[in-house]
From TrEMBL:
Protein name: NAD(P)-dependent oxidoreductase
Highest taxon, organism lineage: Bacteria
Matches recorded under InterPro entries: 6-PGluconate_DH-like_C_sf, 6PGD_dom2, 6PGDH_NADP-bd, HIBADH-like_NADP-bd, HIBADH-related, NAD(P)-bd_dom_sf
Residues annotated as domain 6-phosphogluconate dehydrogenase NADP-binding: 6-166
Source organism per UniProt: Pseudomonas knackmussii
Pfam families with a match to the protein in the record: NAD_binding_11, NAD_binding_2
Domain 3-hydroxyisobutyrate dehydrogenase-like NAD-binding residue range list: 169-289
Lineage: Bacteria, Pseudomonadati, Pseudomonadota, Gammaproteobacteria, Pseudomonadales
Keywords from the named record: NAD, Oxidoreductase
Length: 295
């Protein structure tokens, strides 16, 4: 049996913690780092090594995985003081599960390889914390085919599907498309639940009533019951994450000369909801925006 590659992981948040637990359970030697070091405790207790800095992640790692908040954070972790660039070397791969701007991803990948020889695979994910927990994420990857195939056995422990979408940046374009669908879906589900309530219909029956029909979707089955029952905790994802990804999609559409009016409206509605104190809340809270307008 061949020796498992050594893995490093930066970003121990809602998704990263669950992904790392699966890698440890699969037997991978794992080194972890997070800006708030205490978040690594559950993983170090389970056998992971904690790095002192992002650069330290590269000491013994064959593959470095990232799952960070946004483009600015990824740039800082990779190229900032004590960043990955200071420890990176040829033959290593950086696999970024974050949701970033495609153009910035291409630029950073080019710089990282030019300065260190380390290559980049953008591999954003979809499926939320439940998917991370179960290892059933959908993973969309951009990069050289040989690099994607090299990480496929590792990512098989995290996702049910890994699709090579094209060159570096293609994974991020695909994730933007994914988030356009998810966010617009979440907003219309909130409208539906609020309308059903105002009309005297038991909104908790919407999801089972529509199951299997053309209106059915995972967001409907997850969000509609939470919205109908005002079950907003525990937070499984954040309004600010969806807003950031919608802004990325709108920016991408401008760069490519594409028309995305639904996504533009969705970004403004999401921004309005976030401005009312909901940025760190679950998107199921979107229903309250429509409830208030119906009162």
């Amino acid at each position: 049996m061949s020796e498992l590659p050594s893995i490093a992981f930066a970003g121990i948040g809602l998704m990263g913690l669950r992904m790392c637990r699966r890698l440890l359970a699969a037997g991978y030697p794992l080194t972890v780092w997070n800006r708030s070091p205490e978040k690594c405790a559950p993983l170090t207790e389970a056998g992971a090594r904690q790095a002192r800095s992002p650069a330290d992640l590269c000491d013994a790692a064959d593959i470095v995985l990232l799952c960070l908040a946004d483009t600015a954070v990824v740039r800082e972790v990779v190229f900032g003081a004590g960043g990955i660039i200071e420890g990176a070397r040829a033959g290593q791969l950086l696999v970024d599960h974050s949701s970033l701007e495609p153009a910035a991803t291409r630029s950073m990948a080019t710089e990282l390889e030019a300065r260190s020889g380390m290559r980049w695979v953008d591999a954003p994910v979809s499926g939320g914390t439940a998917g991370a927990e179960a290892g059933s994420l959908a993973i969309m990857a951009g990069g050289l085919r040989e690099d994607v195939e090299r990480v496929r056995p590792v990512l098989a422990h995290l996702g049910q599907r890994l699709t090579h979408m094209g060159d570096v940046g293609a994974g991020q374009v695909t994730k933007a498309c994914n988030q356009m669908i998810v966010a617009c879906n979440a907003l219309v589900i909130a409208e539906v639940v609020a309308l059903a309530e105002r009309s005297g219909v038991d909104a908790s029956l919407i999801a089972p009533a529509l199951a299997g029909g053309f209106a059915d979707s995972k967001p409907l089955q997850i969000l509609a019951p939470q919205m109908a029952n005002s079950e907003f905790e525990p937070v499984k994802w954040h309004v600010r994450t969806l807003l950031k990804d919608l802004d990325t999609a709108v920016q991408l559409s401008r760069e490519e000369g594409s028309t995305t009016p639904m996504t533009g409206l969705a970004s403004q509605l999401m921004r309005l909801h976030g401005s009312q104190g909901h940025l760190d809340h679950d998107p199921s809270t979107l229903v309250d925006m429509y409830r208030k307008r119906g009162q």
